[in-house]
Amino acid sequence: MTFTIASTTVLSNGVEMPLLGLGTYKAVEGAEVEQEVLAALEAGYRSIDTASMYGNEAGIGRAVRASGIPRGELFLASKVWNDEQGYEETLAAFERSAERMGTDYLDLYLVHWPHAVLYAETWRAFEELYRQGRVRAIGVSNFLVPHLETLRAVAKIGPMVDQVEFHPRLQQPELQAYCGEHGIVVEAWAPLMRGRVFEEPVIVSIAGHHGVSPAQVTLRWLLQKGLVAIPKSVRPDRIRANADVFSFELSPEDVGRLDAMDTGERLGRHPDSWGLGQR
Fold this sequence. Notes:
It is a single chain. Helix content is 39%, strand content 13%. By secondary structure, it is an alpha/beta fold.
C-alpha cells in the first residue's frame, strides 16, 4: 500500500482531499500558528485545518501568503461554531472566516458540533455556499450516526466529510460503517491521543519493531484504514516526523493489534454534551 504526503482521498463530489493534514487547535494566533503552518508547508503538507473558535484563522492566512505556494495547491478547511449557527448567521460566519484567512473560498467547511435545533438552517446555508462555489466541499464535525440521520433527512446535498475524535482507543465502528455506506470520508482529530500514544505498550512495541515512533505508527495505521488524519504540533521536528510515515508499512498483524485497542474511551467531549448555544 503505497502512500506519499501528496496522497489524497476522493470525496463524494470528486474533490481530492489530502490524507494527511495539519491540525491547528490551540495553536496561538500570531507567531506560533504562523511558524507551525510555515513549517508544515515546508515539510510538504498541503492541507490545513482550523475553525473560527480556534481564533487563529488570520495567522494561518498570513502564513499561507508568506509561503508563496499558489492557493490552488492548498486545501484549507474551517468550521462554523455553535453560536454562529442558523442560516444568515452561518453565511456571515463564513464571510468572516474567509476574510480572516484572506481567501475567496474554502476547500472544506464543516459544522463544528451538532446543534439539533439549527441543523436544517445551518445546513441550508452550507448548501448555498457550495452552490455559489464559495466552498468546494461541505461536511460536519463530531456528528454521530443519529446526528447524521437527522441531517440527511433535511439535506439536499449530503455531507462529504465527518471530522471526529478517532484514535486507537476510540474507533467508533458503527460510525465508520455508516459513513462508508453513505460515501462520507472520516477525518480523525486527536489521532495521537494528545500524546498518549507514546505511553501505550502495544503502539510502543510496534514502533520498536519498525524503528519508528509511536506517533508514526498511529498515523500510518489511520492512513492504511483509509482515514484522513490531522495531527497537531507546533514543533517543527514533530511536524516533520508526523509527515514521515511513508517509508514503512504495517502488517495485517500490526493493524489487528491496533484495532484491538478500541475501548470507546473519549479524550474530548461527547457530541451530545453541548447545551443549546453553549460555547
